[in-house]
Please model this.
Amino acid sequence: MAVMEDLLLQPPGTTTLLGTVSVLLVFFVFFSNFDCEKKEPPGPRPLPLIGNLLQLGKSPHITLNKLSKKYGPVFTFNFGPQKMVVLAGHRTIREALVSSDAFAEREAVPIIHDLKLTDGIVFANGDSWKEMRHFALTNMRDFGMGRKACEEKIIEESQYLIDLFKDKNGKAFDPAQSVNRAVSNIISSIVYGNRFEYDDPVFISMVDRAVKNTQLMGSASLQLYNFFPRLFKWVGVRKQLMKGSMINREHMKELIKGLQDTLNPQMCRGVVDSFLVRKNQLEASGNMNSHYHEDNLLVTVVNLFTAGTDTTASTIRYGLLLMAKYPEIQDQIQEEISRVIGSRLLQSQDRKNLPYTDAVIHEIQRISNTVPQTIHRTSKDVTFQGYFIKKGTPVLVLLSSALQDEDEWEAPYTFNPSHFLDKDGNFRKREAFLPFSAGPRVCTGESLARMEVFLFFTSLLQHFRFTPPPGVKEEELDLTQVEGFTLTPLPHQLCAISRI
Model:
């Protein structure tokens, strides 16, 4: 024992010292390379507990876009204790969503779990999401999405909307409710198999509540709950959202029950009927563990109804507001419509012969930026653009940064239809135009929304000239948008002056 102690107390020899240094060098090189390979995205230094929340401001997507100029298109931002990776810029977003399969999952924040929205399409993941998305796309096409049958529904609905506007006799009014109900009737006819009258009290409450719920989803106090669920569970906005969502669900359950009671498997009226038929077939064959269960049906209906109402209606309303603010652009659209269409009913195929109108509609979608961001999460460890992102990391995809990418758009912050016109005045596509996102999570109803915006907007411009209310100058019209889960125009009034 004494011999051992003597050996340990002796100074190290040259060989031992060199060996120790060599081992340390190997560890240094190894861990340096390891750290390099695991390098995480940069970002602003977070404060304890609150992270970087004090930097967000009133418009988070604008703040994050500015930060991307400093830290690059892939950076880290701490929403309270929750670290997220932010993806900004057209090329980075497209690379992540289209060229990689690591970002295809959706993150569900606490309020999504509270509202039981992890079934269905929007916030679901895995096999259930794949099955429900495939089912919804297939059946929405079967019931007209992107086809002549759906076009006829939109044209018919546009006539109801035109009649409502005519009843205003050129006086100032807020077009929000009328446009919301017209647009909602299209997705309702696909989902339920029938439209609703504009004075139907249940329909009115469902549409108004869906729009309100979408605004509440993005409110500042609700985000505090999402970041600190234990501390802010009491906030009134959360309670209001929970109550409104549950009421709408009860109405939807009643509609589904009515369809179930009158179901004819040989003659499906809409998406709900098709789901019920499929569910019954699987249960009859003894398959009780399929994805075709009541929760998936209800949440899918919630997803389609909400998304099919708010975003498209907001885009159309913002477009009408822009027309009143920029009458010279409205003049050019109406000249083109009068020259090419005249007074006959507009059709989807007319789009190719209305390049200026088409360019304006695309520019409205770009500048209105209705869905500025979506939240995904990594399904596996991934090294992306030189940075390591761990599996399960929430990833905020900043769609607004693609629509206002300074490297892609000549005047990114200005309403300029020339973005979508070539030198000869022909319509041109732009790769950075991503209002519906991209990749596997691209909006399920994209083709429907495109058709709706074109037919509703052009039909209204064919019949009416939109102006500010009496006493309000064009330059005084406020283009500020209400921050929510989506961006919507501030409440406003317009005059619809009949042209036909």
